[in-house]
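User: For documentation purposes, I need each entry recorded in a consistent format: the amino acid sequence on its own, followed directly by the corresponding C-alpha cells. There are two entries in this batch. Please keep commentary to a minimum and don't merge the entries.

Assistant: Recorded as requested. Entry 1:
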Amino acid sequence: MSGRSNLLIRTIAGAVYGALVICSVLFSRYLFLALILFMTVALMSEYYNMALGKGKMKLQRALAFATAVTFVVTVFCIRSFGIAHSWVSLTMLPLFAMMFSSLSKTCRADFANTSHLFTALVWFALPMGLSSILVLKGGDFNGVMFLCFLVIDWMSDIGAYAFGMLLGQKPGSKKLAPEISPKKSWVGFWGGVGMAVATAWALNALGYLEIPLVFALLLGAIMSVAGVAGDLYESMWKRSHSLKDSGNIIPGHGGMMDRLDSVLFAIPAGSIFLALFNLL
C-alpha cells in the first residue's frame, strides 16, 4: 500500500473514531457507557492475546471481563442514579471466582501468567470505570470536562509529533528514551507540553474548561507528561513482546492500546489533580 493511501485510510479512520467518541461523550450517558465498555473489553482482549496467547485461561479471562464490566457499570450507576456505593462490592464476586479458578490443575502449571489477569484490570478497567466521575455528578450528565481532557491529550500528541518530526530528528537532537522509543525526542516532549498547555488555556478562555486559569495550565502540563509516560509504558510492553502494534481494530492506527496508550495515564492523572483541589 502506498504512503498516500495509508495516510488517507489513517485520516478517515481517525476522523470516524473521533466523531464516535465526541458523540458518545456529549449526547447520551448510555452512549458513553457503551463507549467505555467497548474500549475496556477491546483493551483487555488485545492485552490478553499478547500476554497469554489466544487459547490459554479462557475461563479466567471470561471472569476477568465480568469483573471489569461489573466495575464499569456499577460506578456508572452510582454516579448516574445515586445507588449506594456499597454496590461496587459486586465486583469482588467475579474477581474472587477468577482467583479461585486460577488454582485449577491446568492453571497451576503456568501460574505466573495469572498476574496478567490482574494487570489488565488495573491498567484498563480501573481508569475506564472511574471515567464516569468526569461526566456524571449528582445524576446529571455533562461530558464537556471529559471532552476537554481528550482534546488536551490529542493536542499534546499532535504537538509532540509535529515538533519531534520538524526539529527532533536533526543530527545531535537528544532522544527522550531511545531504548524504548527511538524516535521520541526531548524537542517533541516539550512541544507536546507546550501544545497541551496552550490548548488548556484556549479551552479555559472559551469557557469550556471551567476551572481557574492557573489550574487549567497546570492540568495541561500534568496531562501531557502523564500521557508521555503512558505512551512509553505501552511501547515498552510491546517491545518486550516483539510487537509493532497491539492490534488492528482501527485501520492505520493499530490497536485500541495504541490509540489509548497516553489517555490511560493522562486522564487519571488530570482527574486526581483536579480532585485534590476539589475542582471536579
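Entry 2:
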Amino acid sequence: MKLIAKLIAGIIAGILIGLYLPTWVSQLLLTFKGLFGQLLFFTVPLLILFFITSGIANLPKNSGSLLSKTVGIAYLSTIVAGIVAFFAASIVVPWLTTAGQTMSSASATVLEPFITMNVPPVISVMSALVLAFIFGLGIAATGATQLQQISDQGRDVIERLLSKVIIPLLPVYIAGVFAEMAVAGTVFNTLKTFGIVLALAVVLHWIYLTSMFFLAGMKSGQLPFALLRNMLPAYFTALGTMSSAATIPVTLKAVKDNKVNEDVANFTVPLCATIHLAGSTITIVSCAVAVMVLHNALEIPSFLTMLPFILTLGVVMLAAPGVPGGAVMSAVGLLGSMLGFGETAIALMIALYMAQDSFGTACNVTGDGAIAILVDSSRK
C-alpha cells in the first residue's frame, strides 16, 4: 500500500511540476524517465528468460494428472479473462472518453530530455520467450541441475533488481510521464480515463469471480455465493499484502473451508499463487485498450490482432515475478513487440496497472479458490 501512495504522490508531483515550475525541471524529470526506460526495457527480456525457465523447470514432479489439470485450468481461466476484458474495454473506454482526440492535438508542447542514451537489450522479447521454453522443458526432461541453478540464480538477480531498484524508482518515472503530459496540456483527460479504466477493471474482476464460482458451484454441487463468501478473507488479505504468496496461508484455509480435499488444496493453492494471474490479465488488457485510446499513435486493434497478444500474455503470466507490479513488468516486452507501445505508452500502462495492483492480486488469489474446487471436482 505504501507503493500505491508513492505512485499517487509521483503523479501529483509530476502534474504540479509540469504546470507550475520552470520547463527545465520537467526536462530533468524527462531525462530521468528516458534513462530509466532504457534500464527497464533492457531488463524485461532477461526477466522473461530467467523467470519462465525457472518456473517451468521447478514445476512439481511426479504429479502429472493433477499438475496438467491445474495448469490447464489456470491458463484457460487467464485467457478467457483477457478476452472478456478486451471486448468490455473496447466498448466502454472509447464511449466514455474523448481523451484520444486531445492527445493528438498539434499544438501540444513537446519537451526534449537533456541527455539521451540507447541501451539495446541483449535479446528480443520473443527470442527470450522461446529460449525460456526450450531450456525450461529441457531442464525438466533431463534433470540438468547446473542449468536449473543458473536459471534460479538469474531469476533471483532480476527479482532483486526489480525489488530494490526498478520498483522503488517507478514513482519518479511516473512523475516524469505526468510532468510531460502536464506541459503538453493532456494530463486531465488522461486522469479522467484513469478513473474509468480502474473502475472498469474492478467491475470485471468481480464479474470474473462470480462466473468462476458459479461454475465451481455447478461442478461441486455447492452454492456459488457460499463458496465465494468463504474466500472473502483471502480477498481482503490480498488487498493489504499485494502478494499472492503472502496470502497463501489464508487462501489455503478458505479453500479447505470450501470442502476441497486437503491434498488437492495443498498442491493447487501454492501452485496457482505463482501461475494464475487472471485478475492481473484483466487489468493489463483493459489498461492496454485505455492507453490506445489516449495515445494518438495507436489504434484499438481487431480481436484477431489482439488474440495472439492475450494468448502469449497468458504464458508470460505463468511465471510473473512475485513482487508488486511483477505482472505488468513481465508484459512490458509484449506490449512493445506485439502492440507497438512506445516508452510513453508503456509508462502509462505501468501507472495504470500499479494504481490497482492490490485489486488484481485479490482477484488472482480468490480465483485460485475456484480452480482448486474445479480440480478437486474433476477427480471425483
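Summary note for entry 2:
The chain has a mean pLDDT of 82.
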